[in-house]
Amino acid sequence: MRPAFRAPFTAALAFTAALTLTGCMASASPGTSGTPAPGSTAPASGSASPDPGGTGGPTASGGQPTSSASAPAALATYTFPDGISFKHPADWRVELFEASDSPFVGTATVYDAGGAKQATIYTGEIADGVSSPVTRTVFESVPVPGLQGQPEPAAHCSFYVDRVNDLANYRMHLTAGKPIAGAEMALDGIIRTGDRVLVAEVQFIENPFSSDDAAKAWLTTAEGQALRALLLSVSSS
Fold first, then answer.
1. Which of 24-28, 63-67, 76-80, 147-151 has the lowest mean pLDDT?
2. Which residues pair with 235 in a beta bridge?
3. How many alpha carbons lie under 13 Å from residue 159 in its C-beta half-sphere?
4. How would you class 60 by CB atoms within 10 Å of its CB: exposed for 0-12, middle for 13-18, buried for 19 or more?
5. What is the spatial distance between Cα 69 and Cα 73, in angstroms, rounded to a whole number?
6. 197-208 average pLDDT score
């Protein structure tokens, strides 16, 4: 489905620790995902500001950390023109595609220090959702602190797998409420923020995990925890 991550373990662990203290998110971490993109800086239409803290780096999907964290890495906060913000390691970058400036509609693509795409965050007034029957297994779903004041159902950072005809689709993204396990409909991942909408998702490659046990093991690694922390840092001012 979408690219998985392999950020340096030291970076990921530091980032996880920092966001555990601050309770927020941002760009993604290095990993098995994405295609390196040309270097660039965060666009002028958004803002990135330094923020002390640390991040941890991911390992390969289902793998185990291979080194220990050192000093916490610096974090930066990226803020969209409409007030949606998230935290990311300071050496990562954010590219903004602005579809409209009034009202603002745009998608931020987050790249790690190595140029791999790690996450996308869309904010605007409309978003399309697709629904189809699936059989779902939920690994984790946690409320996002910075979005709890928004319209119900409350935003959650969710990690789960949907199956259709034995094909597994692993996803980690923001969901409206907690995903329901069992025979369900696919989730569109659209979060209401007042009269606007937000969509934020980690980018995995197709078939990133060999099994559900591998997916659950990955979530406990530095990479899994770093990406979880990223989504949990999304907030609306």
1. 24-28
2. 85
3. 24
4. middle
5. 10
6. 92
215 φ, ψ to 5°?
A: -65, -45
Query: Is pLDDT above 60 for 33?
Result: no
The full DSSP string for 156-192 is: EEEEEEEEETTEEEEEEEEEESPPPPEEEE-----EE
Residue type, 237: S
| Among candidate residues 196, 232, 225, the one with its CA nearest the CA of residue 103 | 196
Return the bridge partners of 51, or none: 75
How many angstroms separate the CA atoms of 96 and 182, rounded? 37
The single-letter DSSP state of residue 211 is S
- The pair of structure tokens assigned to 33 is 């995902």
User: What amino acid occupies position 159?
Assistant: F
Inter-residue contact 23 to 232 (CB < 8 Å): yes
Find residue 123's DSSP bridge partners: 106, 198
Burial of 190 (0-12, 13-18, 19+ CB in 10 A): middle
Strand order in the sheet with 47-51: 47-51, 75-79, 84-89, 235-236
